[in-house]
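Our preliminary data section would be incomplete without showing what the modeling component actually yields. Below, a chain of 239 amino acids is followed by its predicted structure, encoded as tokens that our downstream tools consume directly.
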Amino acid sequence: MRFEKLGLRPGMRVLDVGCGGGRHVRQTRLIPGIVAVGLDLGCKEVRDTDKMLRELDAIPVQYGGTVPGAGPWASMRGSVYQLPFKDESFDCVIISEVLEHLSEDERALNELWRVLKRGGTLAVSVPREGPEAVCWALSHDYRNWPGGHIRIYQRSALREKLVQHGFDIYASHFAHALHSPYWWLKCAVGLKRENDWSVKLYHRLLVWDMMRRPRLTRVLEAALQPFIGKSVVFYGIKA
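Predicted structure:
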């Protein structure tokens, strides 16, 4: 997700649906005046988001902590099928790596449209067709894991689905190229083998890359995005 494409300004309200550990809500703490809500169905995910944001708020800004004037935030449980908010409550809604888990993605998109203000921005990411198909081919468990992925989206079909639900798409790109080999490796060795040394080593690399953002891996990932980008991201405006 590229936050510079969201057009966020002080006073705006942002909702992250399926916030997980709060990775996207975290970014809002680096922009003054943004009101942010992280919502997830899982108790652990909401607790993790809450813990991470409290820790971020305690870090001095010069060390990467919350910027002065950052707006309030909240983390809460809720279902994407029945979002606990009034119509047109948010200026921006993010739903990252969630739709592929949902049995009723059309119903979810209707709810996202409902809570988004007219002219507001929707940011959606899902696993990309090619890399995802490799995971499905390598592992039977991957597509049958409880809470796992139940469909593979074609890029053009997802774009059309978003347009049909009232969103004007203004940008898209691939993301997370370095994550594709990690998931291929996990599928190859077995999803249940969480302590496999190769998987743990690659995971450490991804965490290091996320925290340090070194130039070498940034250049490498940019070069690989068109070929093995793990996700496709769409940005749309509520028409």
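The chain has a mean pLDDT of 96. The first strand starts at residue 13 and ends at 17. Preliminary results of this kind motivate Aim 1 of the renewal.
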